[in-house]
Write a structure and sequence with these properties.
single chain; mainly alpha; 4 helices; about 120 residues; globular
Length: about 120
């Protein structure tokens, strides 16, 4: 698990680092950075369920706000959102944000599961 946590920490740190060209870079750098720190701390054996649940709550609340846009994208037939880096239409940006939050929620959920399993 240690290696997986270090890999996740590095991956989310990289995600945070490349947010400079996003329309709302600070929110994303903070969210991805938070997940990177959680995974790094987990790699050294430190987990705090309160911190994990707080992160899950914030991420879930944020994702719920984006669900209508994600559903709209699916109703459109799931057009390509990776063809270009610049989001020229709102559905591209919102869908990417929703999927980014899903990745964060999966990583945080896995950390909660690891905590519960260890107890």
């Amino acid at each position: 698990m240690k290696i997986a946590n270090w890999v996740l920490a590095a991956m989310f740190a990289l995600f945070a680092a490349v947010q400079y060209n996003d329309p709302d870079p600070w929110r994303w750098a903070l969210m991805y950075g938070f997940v990177a720190f959680v995974c790094a701390f987990s790699a050294v054996g430190k987990r705090n369920l309160y911190v994990l649940w707080a992160g899950l709550g914030i991420g879930l609340g944020w994702a719920i706000l984006l669900v209508p846009e994600f559903i709209n994208w699916m109703k459109m037939g799931s057009p390509n959102i990776a063809g270009q880096m610049k989001a020229e239409t709102p559905y591209i940006e919102f869908t990417r944000e929703f999927l980014g939050l899903v990745l964060c929620l999966l990583a945080l959920g896995w950390q909660v599961w690891l905590s519960k399993r260890k107890q």
